[in-house]
Amino acid sequence: MITALLVANRGEIARRIFRTCRELGIATVAVHSDPDADAPHVREADSAVHLPGAAPGDTYLRADLLVKAALAAGADAVHPGYGFLSEDPAFARAVLDAGLTWVGPPPGAMAAMGSKTAAKQLMAAAGVPVLAPVEPSAATEADLPLLVKAAAGGGGRGMRVVRRLADLTGELAAAAAEAVAAFGSPEVFCEPYLPTGRHVEVQLLADGHGTVWALGERDCSLQRRHQKVIEETPAPGLDEALRVELSRAATAAARAIGYTGAGTAEFLLAPDGRFFFLEMNTRLQVEHPVTEEVTGLDLVALQLAVAEGERLPAEAPAARGHAIEARLYAEDPAADWQPQTGTLHRIDFPAGTDLRIDSGVESGSTVGIHYDAMLAKVIVWAPTRAAAARRLADALGRARIHGLVTNRELLVRALRHPAFLAGQVHTAFLTEHAAELRPAAQEKRDLPLAALAAALADAAARPSALPSGWRNLPSQSQIKRYRAVDGTELEVSYRITRDGLRADRYPGVRLLSATGQRVVLAVDGIRRTIEVAVHAGTAYCDSPSGSFALTVLPRFPEPVEQRDPGALLAPMPGTVVRLGAAVGERVTAGRPLLWLEAMKMEHQVVAPVDGVLAELRATTGQQVDLGALLAVVTPTAEPPDATVPTTPAGPAVPTTDEALT
Q: pTM here?
């Protein structure tokens, strides 16, 4: 019997596991790096062990330190969560060799699924449909597009889409280099790429007595950079026969490797209804809450029960209703999904029945560069899919998130999109509908109103016997300036007179009331309430119609520093992981010159102009701050040297971490 459990992880998944442990009466042990010393998961545990350092390679990826921590804290079992070492058979063996209970599948089963190429061969032998790999040397135009994938990895790292045969050799080399850095193995392979395929997976749970449950399928097709953003169960639009076949294939996969515990078989569903095995995640999935919501099960409790040798009932419970999960990330979709760092001043969600929030942060948390950018998973259950989508969009829209740019608005627009509501989902959904998922005209019209509310709240918050701007005789208007997240600058000019608000550019707007936190306006006779909070020079304006972050600007603009147009500044704090050129080389605009890793994502820093790389101030392994000068390209009108290979710019690609798959 497990009496004390160490969770070899952090953040949201550690808190999720601790919650079940408290209900079962199991003592909990947390581990933490230096940045996580005061994290919520550490405070909630019964005891915690410090792992010195900040980088995952020095802390959460150190199997020896984790086993030592479990023994020192008196734990008798280890749960790996997801990400980090959760699918590392060597870690599982180390836990077992130390005399501890491993809450996961047997190391042999994990090893069997550790390589995608070997796993596909094993699944094909078990009768599970697989996508036939394409030998790169034999690839033809008919095979395009192709997907290059790292055999040992996941989460989009070491993955490239190839649409021209001429690009294949370069993309294979780039994927192999990335795979070595991320997973320690250069093995990559090619398979057909289905741009509008669906990502459908089956939740599995197996005990050590021969019982295997297939707990229904989840659709995880809404993705960016090959990472899931919205997941749901049941998958929309599948007929019953297809659901049965998916469950049979997943069960066959589990039995073929003697699997026990929780796991997930992932499939690619083609538009014609055929499906193919992708991989098996030998751990709990990030999106497991949607399965819990429709089945009423606690998958963590069942993992613990299986680890203790208990038998599962012969039949799994029937599912009911529909559940959808949205991953809220600290990232800017308008800036190529660039992750955000800083202080999360406020994060609050509306209360509601069948609304579940799984989060690793809280108001006041600092979001740093070392870990995944996911702030929370927001999950809703409802009797129908349409009702679940509507409630989830509303819950996200009413959330109060201050301090960091997030993907919240994109999630809301996606959940309300007609194609999503019609079940027309696939892995290219966000790209295909990118134009429609941008801020709507109504949201843009509300931005100036938010700026007016911010100005009025600021005036109301200042102690004065008279309203700000009031004079016995007419005087100049009060003027305040703001900058929105997209760079839009707004100037608010207003006066408070005996007759009320006089605001330039705001015809038809009346002020009903104002405090430092709440402004009520009548807009063409319609009452509008806007809540205002100011943190570190930014006004956050929240209303039912939208949320805006407005940086307060000085009334008179500061002189703008002139900078060389060829200078490259760090777009975020991070670590330089690779260099793509040397000083003196001719480069073309868009060529990657170096790669930064931040929040478990890799970002290219590209040449801004054609020219010569005159300065390179970054070195591999160097930590850089936001805005640091990394390199300088001297512009030139001369064509680049044809002998110097150039690499086209590409989007940021993810590394492995706890919230990637």
A: 0.88
